[in-house]
Amino acid sequence: MLFSSKEKLKVGVVGVGVLGRFHTKLYKENPNVELVGVYDVSSAAANAVAKEFGVKPFESFTDLANHCDALTVAVPATKHYETAMPLIDMGKHLLMEKPLAATVPEARELVQAAEAKNLVFGVGHVERFNAAMDFLEKNRSNTLFIEAHRLAKYPPPRPGLHRRGTEVSVVLDLMIHDLDLVLTMVGSEVERFDAVGMPVLSKTEDIASVRLKFKNGAVANITASRVSAEPMRKFRVFQTDSYISMDYAKSTGKILRKSFLGVAVKKVNLCEKNALAAEIADFVDAVRKTKEGPMIVQPKVTGSQGLRALELAAAITEEIDAYNKKYDLYRFRKS
């Protein structure tokens, strides 16, 4: 039976931690969606979120999937593959939180399986939906140099669980956002890079920095930290005739552009928007259009793009690991 444009899309959320709860809330508010229910390995967490939003908590994610057209997967990255693959086998459209998977082989297999099933397969690189990035993507021609800083405080403790994100390096936890943005802005393959990073409070890297050089001559310096005193999310772009500075946490910035009289300065006051709500709306729209047929419509950030960012992030973590082992820097690692 063909999907009617008047039907609501039946969705569920697998994993209702901080991000999963936000997904649940935004699906509940989306007029094109019927939120079927939620699942979490912690029945207490699932029950609490289900009660908050007036939906059913399911005892297994496959049982939830049996009642859904599409699902968000917001479990820890190390559980992405074992969660997503059964859902793909069931023919379910998926929005995966980033990173796509904990390893490149797992991510590649997920992408290939979703393609073979003709599924909508999106990855939650939410910064692509930030108002600042909307502006930058429209002004990305002739990009020569990018500088990105993403600094955050150390995640708070969670009883019985690791601190959020620390199951993977800060490269896969935070820097991968900016790797995706830089790859989108530059539009060229990476020629070479140099990376450093160190664990500080966790067993994986908590701070890292990389310098990327692209085949078209562009260069990018990216720094990420989850042990900073003050949060920062800034993105600076130098182009052939202008300099664009964006604070995409505040959705503000400025443009300096060469003019006949010298340098013209323009402040950019971008409209605030909920980037996650925009990401979910984009995913829902892609699934609805796909179900209406006849074409497969993918969301703004596809599985292939998520894989591209993960491949670069994995290569960076491998170089950091080799450097730290060479100089015995892991002797400082937290036990």
Q: Which tags fit this structure?
A:
335 residues, alpha/beta, Rossmann fold, Dihydrodipicolinate Reductase, domain 2, 2 domains, 8-stranded mixed beta sheet, 6-stranded parallel beta sheet, 9 helices, 14 strands, 35% helix, globular
Mean pLDDT: 92
What fraction of residues sit in β-strands? 25-35%
What is the CATH homologous superfamily assignment of the largest domain?
Answer: Dihydrodipicolinate Reductase, domain 2
Largest sheet features: 8 strands, mixed
Question: Which word captures the global form?
Answer: globular
Number of domains: 2
Structural class: alpha/beta
Oligomer: single chain
Strand order of the largest sheet: 8-9-10-7-11-12-13-14
Distance between the termini: 56 Å
User: What is the strand tally?
Assistant: 14
Would you identify the CATH architecture of the largest domain? 2-Layer Sandwich
Radius of gyration equals: 21 Å
The ordered string of helix (H) and strand (E) elements is: EHEHEHEHEHEHEHEEEEEEEHH
What is the helix fraction of residues, given as a range? 25-40%
CATH class of the largest domain: Alpha Beta
Low-pLDDT residue spans: none
Instruction: Enumerate how many helices there are, as a single number.
Output: 9
Q: Kindly identify the CATH topology of the largest domain.
A: Dihydrodipicolinate Reductase, domain 2
